[in-house]
């Protein structure tokens, strides 16, 4: 099987997360997409809701789509092993007969290319990637300018332009909730109601 591993904070999961996953699934002819919420222990993440809430919102969002599955592999990892390289190593063991692709945005590709990710060089050397376009980022130029990326550019970077520059920031949604707004149609209705019922993001300032 061809499996996409879609890592994000999902704080909260949005309709664009789902649309992106569906687009990638179709374009790259995947058999499964894993939604991989980030660990709160990562130094590059600042999360506003507890793991249990993010897990539940993902479960609600993907409940009706058999192509999508939740993976808590990163959340369950021991301290120090919660970064993407270690997570992908464990997933490779779990899915030893399958082909894995780490799904990320072009902005993440830039960060990896700069060497700012833990074990970023090993991550690039040992895995395949599906990279989604972002406005203002030239993906080919990003690869060619980075020694780390260009020396591994043997077809492992599968570049995808979704064809529609539609982005919904989880930060924007959190801000709307904190100010009494109604970002109802930016995320699944089940998640919207869950946030209201659990009074999430009411005190966030970011």
From TrEMBL:
Signal peptide positions (record): none
Protein's UniProt keywords contain Ribosomal protein: no
Reactions catalysed: nicotinate beta-D-ribonucleotide + ATP + H(+) = deamido-NAD(+) + diphosphate
Coiled coil: none
Gene Ontology molecular function: nucleotidyltransferase activity
Keywords: ATP-binding, NAD, Nucleotide-binding, Nucleotidyltransferase, Pyridine nucleotide biosynthesis, Transferase
Recorded metabolic or biological pathway in which this protein acts: Cofactor biosynthesis; NAD(+) biosynthesis; deamido-NAD(+) from nicotinate D-ribonucleotide: step 1/1
Start and end residues of each Cytidyltransferase-like domain: 6-175
EC number from the UniProt entry: 2.7.7.18
Superkingdom assignment: Bacteria
Enzyme class: transferase
Its biological purpose: Catalyzes the reversible adenylation of nicotinate mononucleotide (NaMN) to nicotinic acid adenine dinucleotide (NaAD).
HAMAP family on file: NaMN_adenylyltr (MF_00244)
Family: Belongs to the NadD family.
Alphabetized PANTHER family for the sequence: NICOTINATE-NUCLEOTIDE ADENYLYLTRANSFERASE-RELATED, PHOSPHOPANTETHEINE ADENYLYLTRANSFERASE
Name used for this protein in its record: Probable nicotinate-nucleotide adenylyltransferase
Protein encoded by which gene: nadD
